[in-house]
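Protocol step 4 of 5: obtain the predicted structure for the target chain.
Materials: sequence only (see below). No template structures provided, no constraints applied. The aim of this step is simply to have a reference model before the mutagenesis design in step 5. Sequence pasted as it appears in the construct record:
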Amino acid sequence: MKLIGNICFAVFVIWAASFFFNSEAKDLPSNEALISQFEKQNILNGNEWKKGSIVEGVQVYSARTAGNSIKSSWLLGVKQVGVISVSSKTDPALSKKDALSTCHKLVQGVMARDVRDDYDIVARVFKYALDSEPVDNTKRDAEIIDGYKFEVQMGPIASNLYSYACTMKPK
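Step 4 output (structure tokens):
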């Protein structure tokens, strides 16, 4: 009986682990395709992206946006897409809400869709990062979204400024 219990437990552990390790890693679309996806999702217009350097044969792009409480810098890089938002500490509740929205827009643009499940994952990662213990003054958390690693990092960058960074890359 003990042997059957151990076998059942081992099968359960393998089955549960397959959910975490079985999702396929995906390459990001080209930066030009990402620009089109961001435009189709009404996040950033194609003309808002500025060409940067060519790194490892890939054209890098950046864009800047300003909201009510945060200013954001977007990057389409080599094997990584990200946004860094900076806010003053005068209204932290609004800053967190705006940063969460910006992170969701990043996922929305990369995935070329606007679905509730993606927002729920972004909100969960954001909350877990907020609740985490800081390491080197930075709080962070990550999760896999359809083969991409989505990571949130946040922390103070000056006495009156706070930074929120969200990235997506192949897992």
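Step 4 remarks: The chain has a mean pLDDT of 89. The radius of gyration is 19 Å.
Proceed to step 5.
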